[in-house]
Design brief:
The complex is a heterodimer. In chain A, 76% of the residues lie in helices and 0% in strands. By secondary structure, chain A is an all-alpha fold. In chain A, helix 2 runs antiparallel to helix 3 and helix 3 runs antiparallel to helix 4. Chain B is an all-alpha fold.
Chain lengths: 108, 158
């Protein structure tokens, strides 16, 4: 484990986090299915968590606070997916669709 | 990008598992356990439930799963990625070394409660996140509850 860790700099984790965030943003912007949009938002939150934990482990003066923020982020993501799926189910029950560009109830 | 939504959910679960592996490599095994329990376990199952409740047989064409704004969306996502890569490249990352994080579970617990040298704001954040989870649970039940008289009962169908 020591030799495995010593070869990976901080930028490696940050690059993976950036790529995951960009993929999640792309999916959340272009997909129509609301459930898939939620999955992409989860992907973005995971990328943020990965960056936070990488900073917490690599920066000497961080004091490991990033891990605490990551736990809070996981809790927020769990709450978000619970409420979001409930909203999607409610919308599906009234509109019979989950496509985000067809849900225009609030358009005047 | 998979045409089948269930395949997308399973691939998402796989990527969450990979992130858990990254957490182990970053000396945070407790967070990896959280990740496996919450994301790979709970969130994937909830999303699969959402897919099962809302999926209709649909035309499996590439156009039907994308919005009309897919080219602007692609440009925005590429812009976000380019901006993140630029920030990564202009920053000087010397002096960063591993093994600075909380490697013991007790240290992580002290950070979460804001005691023992951790920023004391974490105590407040811990309470706020507890209230947020409770509110989200109640809200999920209230929103997804079917009101009496709405919809079709199963007995009427038979």
């Amino acid at each position: 484990m020591d030799t495995l860790n010593a070869t990976i700099p901080l930028e490696g984790y940050l690059v993976v986090g950036a790529i995951m965030f960009a993929i999640g943003a792309w999916g959340a912007l272009v997909r129509r299915n609301a459930v898939v949009v939620f999955m992409c938002i989860e992907l973005m939150l995971n990328a943020i968590n990965l960056s936070l934990v990488a900073f917490a482990d690599y920066l000497p003066e961080a004091g490991g606070a990033g891990v605490g923020y990551a736990v809070l982020g996981i809790a927020v993501a769990a709450a978000e997916v619970a409420v979001g799926l409930a909203v999607v189910l409610a919308v599906y029950r009234t509109r019979k669709t989950v496509n985000v560009d067809e849900v225009n109830l609030m358009k005047g | 990008m998979s045409r089948n939504v269930v395949h997308s959910a399973l691939f998402m679960s796989g990527s969450f598992f990979g992130i858990a592996g990254f957490f182990v490599m970053l000396n945070a095994p407790v967070l990896a356990a959280f990740q496996v329990l919450i994301y790979v376990g709970a969130v994937t199952v909830v999303i699969l439930f959402g897919i099962m409740f809302t999926q209709r047989p649909q035309v499996r064409r590439f156009r039907t799963i994308l919005q009309r704004q897919h080219w602007p969306g692609l440009f925005v996502a590429i812009g976000v990625g380019a901006f993140l890569a630029y920030v990564l490249s202009i920053q000087d990352w010397t002096g960063t070394e591993p093994y600075n994080g909380p490697q013991e579970t007790g240290t992580l617990g002290e950070i979460l409660l804001g005691v023992g040298g951790a920023p004391p704001i974490f105590g407040l954040l811990f309470e706020v996140i507890s209230v947020l989870l409770l509110v989200a649970m109640v809200a999920a039940i209230v929103i997804s509850r079917r009101k009496t008289g709405e919809g079709v009962d199963r007995q009427e169908l038979e």
